[in-house]
Amino acid sequence: MSRAEATKARILAAATAEFAAHGIAGARVERIAKTASANKNLIYVYFESKDLLFDAVFDAHVARGLEQVPFTAEDLPGYAGRIHDYCREHPEVLRLAAWHRLERGAEGDPSVAAPAYAAKLDSLATAQREGHLAVTFAPATLLTLVLALATAWGPVGATSLPVQAVQDSDWQEARKAVVEAVRSLT
């Protein structure tokens, strides 16, 4: 890895922590530069702006994460369990996604995650047309419900328990509940 690549990687790592903790508006380029042991100007050389740096972080963690977790329309319970596991291992993903939605809104800039969602929606529609999946819910509604259940125990999920209070055995119970809830849903 070249020196420039190493610096860029440190900036992305520092930016990930900064954006996950403070969002786009609250993140400070100065803190990112200090944490990355990099010159602040390099952030602008590599990423042009704080917004584009956020996009790079979002793409690296959220969009690529959606692509890394195997998806099949015929196994939505398994997919929900894998998403639950991925978000447990990468809690910054849910925080970044929440900040994106809060600060950019639904009709803001087109998300880099859109292609990953589009492929999943097409797959769900095909599975419904071919009779492999119930047509109780439209594909977008079904995917939204699956993701909501899978991420309910995350740092910005709907659960009433603080994430820190959930022990390893409780995570396994939560995962089982997610899988069974999605199985019931589908």
From TrEMBL:
The keyword Cell inner membrane does not apply. Gene3D superfamilies: Tetracycline Repressor, domain 2. PANTHER family: HTH-TYPE TRANSCRIPTIONAL REPRESSOR SCO4008, TRANSCRIPTIONAL REPRESSOR. Residues 5-65 form the HTH tetR-type domain. Pfam families: TetR_C_21 (PF17926), TetR_N (PF00440). Keywords: DNA-binding, Membrane, Transmembrane, Transmembrane helix. Residues 28-47 bind DNA. InterPro entries: Homeodomain-like_sf, HTH-type_TetR-like_transc_reg, HTH_TetR, Sco4008_C, Tet_transcr_reg_TetR-rel_C_sf. The lineage of its organism: Bacteria, Bacillati, Actinomycetota, Actinomycetes, Streptosporangiales. The chain crosses the membrane at residues 133-153. One of its GO terms (molecular function) is DNA binding. GO terms for biological process: regulation of DNA-templated transcription. This is Transcriptional regulator, TetR family. Signal peptide: none annotated. The keyword DNA-binding applies.
